[in-house]
Each structure stands twice: as C-alpha cells, then as structure tokens.
Amino acid sequence: GTAIKASSWSLYLLVEIAASPAIQAIPTVSSAVQHQDQKALAKALCDIATSLRCAKEYFMRMRDFVDPE
C-alpha cells in the first residue's frame, strides 16, 4: 500500500543522494586529467567509486519494495 510506495520513493531518493557526489566529481576528474594531476584524479575516482558503491547498496534494496511486473 501507501507505506510500501513511500518506502520505495525514499529508496529512490537515497540512491540519488548517494550518487550525487559521483556526479559532482566529474569536473574534478576532467580538470585533473587536463592538468595531469594524478593525486587529484586518484582522489576523485576514489570518491566516485565510494559514492557508486553506496548508491548500489540502496539500489539493491529496491528489490524488496518494487514489483518488477
């Protein structure tokens, strides 16, 4: 019912929030590549990986709330 729908929307929001640092890091990656700054690039890529792992954890929980049909 409504509680399940609210929970699934909460998970969608959590996925978006968790993924947003990855999106925000894209300009840093671009700049680091342009300036050949390996340290900044490594940190930005690490931040992206962490963000996407977190988003994936929330995304995997959606199966509990979303009917694939």
From TrEMBL:
Keywords: Dioxygenase, Iron, Metal-binding, Oxidoreductase, Signal, Tryptophan catabolism. The keyword Acyltransferase does not apply. Residues 1-25 form the signal peptide. Transmembrane segments: none annotated. It holds the Pfam family IDO. GO terms for biological process: L-tryptophan catabolic process to kynurenine. GO terms for molecular function: heme binding; metal ion binding; oxidoreductase activity, acting on single donors with incorporation of molecular oxygen, incorporation of two atoms of oxygen. Belongs to the indoleamine 2,3-dioxygenase family. This is Indoleamine 2,3-dioxygenase. It comes from Phodopus sungorus. The gene is Ido.
